[in-house]
Design goal:
With 148 residues, the protein is α+β, with helices and mostly antiparallel strands. The chain has helices spanning 3-30, 35-43, 115-135, and strands at residues 52-53, 56-64, 67-74, 79-86, 91-99. It has a domain at 51-130. The protein has three helices and five strands, in the order ααβββββα. Strands 1-2-3-4-5 form a five-stranded antiparallel sheet, with no helix packed on it. The longest helix is centred in the first third of the chain and has 28 residues, at 3-30. The two termini are 69 Å apart.
């Protein structure tokens, strides 16, 4: 069997494949948008976000291994509320609520280590690096003899 016997079906298949791809391209480029499609495309930005909108967001959460609930965050009022779902009672119960407006003004509250300890550690590390670099041997190669 010669190579032309095997190559003819492959060549025909490649031509057919190219023709199909060209037809798909022409179909996609030739489509005219109707008024309904244009209106639907313009309406997409007006959809609310998944977790909420207008500054109010709801996020499901697991409060304990067997207890589920949700967080409710209002960014305009700067308030966070936690609700617990009690399956036996089929009730959503407010567990906690807090205005966090002034919490955001705190810079270092209930954190360990304190910011000044971190600052000192960073300064010490930089100082040690500089002193270690000054003690490194020179990386310059020794001078070569000028004799040929």
């Amino acid at each position: 069997m010669n190579s032309s016997t095997f190559s003819k079906p492959i060549v025909y298949a490649l031509y057919v494949n190219g023709a199909i791809l060209l037809a798909i391209l022409i179909t996609l480029l030739g489509r005219v948008r109707t008024g309904v499609e244009t209106a639907a495309a313009q309406a997409v930005p007006d959809q609310p976000s998944i977790a909420g909108g207008n500054g109010v967001f709801v996020m499901p959460c697991q409060l304990h291994p067997e207890v589920w609930g949700c967080y409710l965050l209002d960014t305009q009022r700067q308030t966070l509320a936690v609700y617990e779902y009690r399956a036996g009672e089929k009730a959503l119960v407010l567990s906690a609520a807090r205005n966090f407006r002034f919490d955001l003004d705190l810079k270092n509250y209930n954190t360990f280590p304190a910011w000044y300890d971190i600052e000192k550690a960073v300064e010490d590390a930089a100082k040690n690096q500089r002193s270690n670099e000054s003690q490194l041997p020179s990386l310059n190669p020794p001078p070569r003899d000028s004799n040929p």
